[in-house]
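Customer escalation, tier 2.

The customer says the design service returned an amino acid string that "doesn't look like it belongs to this structure." They asked us to rerun it and document both sides in this ticket. The original structure tokens are below, unchanged.
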């Protein structure tokens, strides 16, 4: 991204080398942390990019400090608790009717922690990644004994506290900057769907259709409040789009940043 931007990484409290206080993991405090980091680093008009849960604190910051940022990029980060698929009775019922082999579990070697290189390979298989997580990211997540992978650095209670601190209904009101959202709409490889009988195909189609209904609710929430929204479907990206569809994600972010300068 050096051809268009300077990239900064902010590690939220409880993760990596950041401190692990006993409290402060609610949406508002995490947004305050990001805002303070921007102020301390004197980064003018940044474009904030958030993945997954980061969408919550990024939305809060954008709503309260639109005058301080230039744009918001959501990487599979639009979901909220109000329309969370597992909490939707219809989605949950349809999930129970899905063919058991919808997503075949890959045959993976045992987790190998002897080196970070070996760990990347075994973890990528287990998570179904085409591209392994970068070694630098894993070293930020796990302790190291030389080159051997140790225990995870972030205690489980930190992740639970962040989950409990998420707002129930995402509020995009007062966000006055452009938004770019990238995610994968529920879909299935056509060759896999065609291998099923009529009953199973009907179950698959109903399940995916319900998922699209919930996802469209996320998108509608943004569009009702934000004047400039671009939504990009990334087929096959799954949750870690910045790894599985890296070139597409970078291309869209570059175009988004350039459009803000006009």
């Amino acid at each position: 991204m050096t051809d268009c931007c300077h990239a900064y990484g902010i590690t939220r409290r409880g993760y990596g080398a950041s401190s692990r206080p006993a409290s402060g993991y609610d949406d508002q405090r995490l947004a305050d942390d990001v805002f303070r980091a921007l102020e301390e680093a004197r980064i003018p008009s940044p474009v904030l990019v958030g993945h997954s849960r980061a969408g919550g604190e990024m939305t809060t910051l954008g709503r309260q400090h639109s005058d301080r940022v230039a744009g918001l990029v959501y990487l599979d980060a639009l979901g909220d608790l109000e329309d969370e698929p597992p909490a939707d009775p219809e989605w949950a019922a349809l999930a129970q009717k899905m063919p058991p082999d919808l997503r075949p579990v890959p045959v993976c070697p045992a987790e190998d922690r002897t080196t970070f290189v070996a760990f990347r390979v075994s973890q990528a298989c287990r998570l179904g990644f085409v591209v392994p997580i970068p070694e630098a990211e894993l070293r930020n997540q796990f302790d190291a004994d030389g080159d051997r992978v140790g225990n995870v650095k972030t205690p489980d209670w930190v992740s639970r506290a962040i989950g409990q601190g998420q707002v129930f209904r995402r509020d995009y009101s007062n966000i006055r900057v452009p938004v770019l959202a990238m995610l994968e709409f529920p879909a299935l490889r056509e060759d896999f769907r065609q291998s099923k009988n009529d009953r199973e195909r009907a179950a698959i189609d109903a399940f995916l259709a319900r998922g699209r209904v919930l996802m469209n609710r996320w998108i509608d929430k943004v569009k009702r409040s934000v004047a400039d929204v671009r939504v990009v479907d990334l087929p096959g990206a799954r949750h870690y789009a910045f790894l599985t569809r890296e070139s597409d994600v970078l291309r869209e972010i570059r175009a988004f940043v350039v459009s803000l300068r006009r």
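Tier 2 assessment: The sequence is consistent with the input. The mean pLDDT is 90. Residues 27-260 form a domain with the Rossmann fold fold (CATH 3.40.50). Sent an explanation to the customer and offered a walkthrough call.
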